[in-house]
Amino acid sequence: MDRHWRGLRTPFESISAGIKLRSFIETKLSSFPLGGKITAKVLSLKPDQFELLGTHAALAQRFLPISPTLKCRLDGQSVGQSLAMLNTEVEDLQEFLALDPDMELSRIELPIEQIAKIAELRKSRNLLAKHIDAMPLRHAIEAIGRTKDRINCATAAVAWI
Amino acid sequence: MRLDRYFKHYDDLGPQTLADINSVIALDNQIGIPPDDRLIVEIANLDLDELERGLSLRRDIVRIESELKLLPDLCIKNSKSLALTTSMLRNGVGLGLCAQTPREAYEFVREQRARASVVIKILNEFLPLLDHIGLDRSYPVNGLNAVAVAALIASKIAPEHRSWIGELRSLHYDTFAPSLAKWERPVSAERDWRRQVLAYGKRSWPLVHEIRSAAAFFRKKGIGKWISGRTSAAKAARRLVMQLGLEEAHPQGDALDSLAQHVQELNRFRERPQRGLSVG
Questions:
Q1: Is residue B15 part of a domain?
Q2: What residue ranges in chain B does DSSP mark as E strands?
Q3: What's the gap in Å between the CA of A23 and the closest CA on chain B?
Q4: Rounded to the nearest 10 degrees, what angle do helices B252-271 and B232-244 cross at?
Q5: How many residue pairs bridge chain A and chain B with CB atoms within 8 Å of each other?
């Protein structure tokens, strides 16, 4: 106080405002996690640093509405860990979307697992057909093995011979 | 009789005795009943091993086709496109979305990506802010609310108050309030006095004893005032009243006394800087 003494021109009002603002900051921040730590940091700022802190208000306004979601997802993690995790997540999501870049499959109104099952069955059928195509007897096999009954008969006939 | 005729007709078959006939029956049983004469003719000259392998493959194809018949028909015939779904189920993200249609899954994934990108952008923007207050990326995310609120408060604080927030940190309002009240009284009185004597401007006040002398002179009446009217004290009193822009009149004595009192209080205030104030 001594160094601020200017008699009647001592900045009592400024000092008073400073005390009130300090108290306001302490009260306001103490309701948040790590509020005490941030209060100490803020109160130790020089006026120009304080001004610079205020320039981030727009960011703060964008951040506060999404804060509850973040709290659920990233609670207990540091900013660095969260960034690493989210970057990996975006890469994974990107990778998934890149599987069908033209969104061709979006025309099919079936669950992915069902489409996958059909795709697997078709693939197996095509593979088996390829094996048959490679056989010299392919025409006979196709003609004789058209239906399940004919296959059974032909198999029995082969066994009989 | 009929048996006798049979043996005569098929004499070349060989069975001559009942035992021979039993052997032929046993052989016939072993051979079994041929499944289909025409089929036997059709396949008899083929490579039976290959045919058997091929039929086994055909059996699998027929089974798969009957399974496919039970499933919905797809508008996309391109197997390569359909095979993407298999890749999707091998993908960590896709596995969790297997019960959704591709359209729903794409929509969900796009939304997730957009949300995550917004958070990444905001967290990245926080890094310079954290750095600014002496923190780094190891700072917990759940502490960002306090940082954000601090930035909002800082943006609303008037420039003239910024320098006082960190000053006199140990000074609390309860301790400071009495000092403030002691300061406010003379300041308020000073404001009033300066308003009353606008002509005097912002000059320093005359000395207390000069004001008191002037007050004493103006309080005099009649002969007393007439006698002292030509003294240097009277001249000084008139000059002072003129400087202050007050009119020469009897009530000015009281006003000047009051001003002297005020100036004395100001002097006292100036002389006791630390007493009662040195809390910081």
A1: yes
A2: none
A3: 9
A4: 80
A5: 430
Whether residue B47 is contained in a domain is answered as: yes
Cα–Cα nearest to B131, from A159, A49, A136 = A49
Q: Does residue B161 lie within any of the structural domains?
A: no
Nearest to A1 by CA among B277, B247, B267: B277
Both B208 and B136 in one domain: the answer is no
Per-residue pLDDT of chain B (280 residues; tens, 9 = 90+): 566 666 666 666 666 777 877 877 777 777 666 667 788 888 878 888 899 999 999 999 999 999 999 988 776 667 777 788 888 888 888 888 999 999 999 999 999 999 999 999 999 999 999 999 999 999 999 999 999 999 999 999 999 888 888 887 888 888 888 888 888 888 899 999 999 888 888 899 999 999 999 888 888 776 666 666 667 778 888 888 888 887 755 567 888 999 999 999 988 887 765 554 544 3
Same domain, yes or no: B246 and B263: yes
Looking at the structure, do residues B63 and B86 belong to the same domain, yes or no? Answer: no
Is A109 close to B103, i.e. CB distance below 8 A? yes
Q: What is the rounded CA–CA span in Å between residue B150 and residue B107?
A: 37
B210 inside domain: yes
The C-alpha of A8 sits at a distance from chain B's nearest C-alpha, in angstroms, of 7
ipTM confidence: 0.81
One domain, residues B109 and B140: yes
